[in-house]
């Protein structure tokens, strides 16, 4: 295989409950990034999955009167169904309870041990079960309610037990040198700055095993201990490409990962612990970690007690999968926090999709249907305006590529929808419906140019809205092998004389 590769992952979710909108957002955005690269000619490997071990799973299961494994088995199919419902194109779905993942986790442990980076000691300090994270005392605060909270605002508890440690402190300089040499390693910049100042502040060795419960991967040679859940969780990214078989075709081809997409609350694990584990094990770090923001329902954090949890299944049922994907990708600058509400979603559906793109397609294609027997016309001589707007469409790919390579998905969609707006102005100004009698050749040209603009918009919309974009391309009779990005621009122009199917609406208005 000669194509350049692109290995992209999401965080793996804790299946301690039903998937929520934050999980949906992460996987659908990562899917858009993966689809973009595939359409741009890359050999993409896209991994998502579930993070099943740890005390949080044990405690939630105990409350429900079942085992952690039963809890995982109950919820994991919901995460898989959600990815399917959201039309995600993941190549694999990893569960950390799988035998392949036990092998990989024990192998990386052995490598870190052999490197002299693991030693036995005893841990005494603060632990947040909700975050599955250790916090230094200085990162916690005792609040008026008498509860001590950690850096992310979740309660912490005092833990004291025998534990294995990872010599994280030994990697401080190497990590800082890595951030310096690879400024693209962490995005967006604010997250990078946070990580750099955290590491500059000094790294303590990390407790990496627990003895008070047994739902985890046994420490090799000392099964009284299970691995700290984050050691095994992060390892999923290499399990997914065949580790510990480092000579396998898949590992050699795909590792290091090109992009780990995660939420902003778990940057420290990905940008500090993970590269340190990999350095220790003699493996390359991922090329980039990008943290998206958090979603809020009308500015409020979702919580079961507030009753504002919107589940991904009902939101897709209410609006449809592509409108949901499009809304989150266009509305929320990727990397920043975002808000959603019924009104905001309906507004995007009706303005951007039904009016701007949907109407343009419907009006131009039905004119071809009615006036030209459904046969795409040959264009006549092109006017300066025709040339200009076609050139604008032809110039979109480099803009979109640059935006996607920086995970600025919203900027790519902005650029495409600016063209949609221009195309609407063009269509209104040219008034092809008036030309039918006076200048049919000019009418044919305007309809051809409009159809060609829609073709390019549809091709570039595939990462965000795979199903709807495919329908638009069907209406333009674009063959399946002419839908990738190498068909953008003049080389893929629609061919006059092509018989088009009867046009149907692709973007219905949302009616209350
Ligand atoms: O953190 N908005 O799992 P998780 C946007 N198992 N994203 C959100 C969100 C919200 N409201 N809430 C959560 C874990 N997320 C670990 C990851 S990776 C080796 C292990 C994001 O189920 C969150 O930031 O708590 C994370 O990226 C993902 O959802 C899974 O969160």
Automatic annotation (TrEMBL):
Q: GO CC annotation: what is one?
A: cytoplasm
Domain Methionyl/Leucyl tRNA synthetase, first and last residues per copy = 7-364
Q: Does the record carry Aminoacyl-tRNA synthetase as a key word?
A: yes
Intracellular or extracellular location(s): Cytoplasm
Q: Which Gene3D superfamilies match?
A: 2.170.220.10, HUPs, Isoleucyl-tRNA Synthetase, Domain 1
Q: Which reaction does it catalyse?
A: tRNA(Met) + L-methionine + ATP = L-methionyl-tRNA(Met) + AMP + diphosphate
State the Pfam families in the record. Anticodon_3 (PF19303), tRNA-synt_1g (PF09334)
- Motif 'HIGH' region: which residue numbers? 13-23
Q: Any idea which GO molecular function terms this record carries?
A: ATP binding; methionine-tRNA ligase activity
Q: What keywords would UniProt list here?
A: Aminoacyl-tRNA synthetase, ATP-binding, Cytoplasm, Ligase, Nucleotide-binding, Protein biosynthesis
Motif ('KMSKS' region) positions are 301-305
Principal localization? Answer: cytoplasm
Q: What is its EC number?
A: 6.1.1.10
Ranges for domain Methionyl-tRNA synthetase anticodon-binding: 376-510
Q: What class of enzyme is it?
A: ligase
Which GO biological process entries does UniProt record here?
methionyl-tRNA aminoacylation
Q: What does this protein do?
A: Is required not only for elongation of protein synthesis but also for the initiation of all mRNA translation through initiator tRNA(fMet) aminoacylation.
Q: Which family is annotated?
A: Belongs to the class-I aminoacyl-tRNA synthetase family. MetG type 2B subfamily.
HAMAP family noted in UniProt: Met_tRNA_synth_type2
On assembly, the entry states: Monomer.
Please give the name of this protein.
Answer: Methionine--tRNA ligase
Query: To which species is this protein native?
Result: Kaistia hirudinis
Classification from the root reads: Bacteria, Pseudomonadati, Pseudomonadota, Alphaproteobacteria, Hyphomicrobiales
């Amino acid at each position: 295989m000669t194509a350049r590769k692109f290995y992209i992952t999401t965080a793996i979710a804790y299946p301690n409950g039903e998937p929520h909108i934050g999980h949906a957002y992460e996987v659908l955005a990562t899917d858009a990034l993966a689809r973009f690269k595939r359409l741009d000619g890359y050999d993409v490997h896209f991994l998502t999955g579930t993070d099943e071990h740890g005390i949080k799973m044990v405690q939630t299961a105990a409350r429900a009167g079942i085992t952690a494994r039963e809890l995982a088995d109950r919820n994991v199919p919901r995460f898989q169904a959600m990815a399917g419902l959201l039309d995600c194109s993941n190549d694999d779905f990893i569960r950390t309870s799988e035998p392949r993942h036990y092998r990989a986790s024990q192998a990386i442990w052995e490598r870190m041990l052999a490197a002299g980076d693991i030693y036995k000691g005893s841990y005494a300090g603060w632990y947040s079960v909700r975050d599955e994270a250790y916090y230094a005392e200085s990162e916690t605060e005792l609040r008026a309610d008498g509860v001590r909270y950690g850096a992310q605002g979740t309660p912490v508890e005092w833990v004291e037990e025998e534990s294995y440690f990872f010599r994280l402190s030994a990697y401080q300089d190497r990590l800082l040198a890595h951030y310096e040499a690879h400024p693209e390693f962490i995005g967006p910049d604010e997250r990078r700055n946070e990580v750099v100042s955290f590491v500059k502040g000094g790294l303590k060795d990390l407790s990496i095993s627990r003895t008070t419960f047994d739902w985890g991967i046994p420490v090799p040679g000392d099964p009284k201990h299970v691995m700290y859940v984050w050691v095994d969780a992060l390892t999923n990214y290499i399990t997914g490409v065949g580790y510990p078989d480092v000579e396998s075709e898949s590992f050699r081809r795909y590792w290091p990962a090109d992009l780990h997409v995660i939420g902003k609350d778990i940057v420290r694990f990905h940008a500090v612990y993970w590269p340190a584990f990999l350095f220790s094990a003699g493996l390359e770090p991922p090329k980039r970690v990008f943290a998206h923001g958090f979603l809020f329902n009308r500015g409020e954090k979702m919580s079961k007690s507030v009753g504002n949890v919107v589940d991904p299944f009902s939101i897709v049922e209410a609006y449809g999968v592509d409108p949901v994907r499009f809304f989150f990708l266009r509305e929320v600058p990727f990397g920043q926090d975002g808000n959603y509400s019924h009104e905001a979603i309906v507004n995007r559906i009706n303005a951007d999709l039904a009016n701007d793109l949907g109407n343009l397609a419907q009006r131009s294609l039905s004119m071809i249907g009615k006036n030209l027997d459904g046969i795409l016309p040959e264009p006549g001589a092109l006017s300066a305006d025709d040339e200009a707007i076609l050139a604008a469409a032809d110039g979109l790919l480099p803009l979109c590529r640059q935006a996607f390579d920086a995970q600025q998905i919203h900027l790519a969609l902005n650029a495409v929808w600016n063209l949609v707006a221009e195309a609407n102005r063009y269509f209104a100004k040219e008034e092809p419906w008036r030309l039918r009698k006076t200048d049919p050749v000019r009418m044919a040209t305007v309809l051809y140019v409009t159809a060609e603009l829609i073709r390019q918009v549809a091709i570039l919309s595939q990462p965000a809205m795979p199903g709807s974009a495919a329908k638009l391309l069907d209406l333009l009779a674009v063959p399946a092998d002419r839908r990738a990005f190498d068909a953008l621009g003049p080389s893929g122009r629609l061919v006059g004389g092509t018989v088009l199917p009867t046009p149907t609406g692709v973007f219905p208005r949302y009616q209350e």
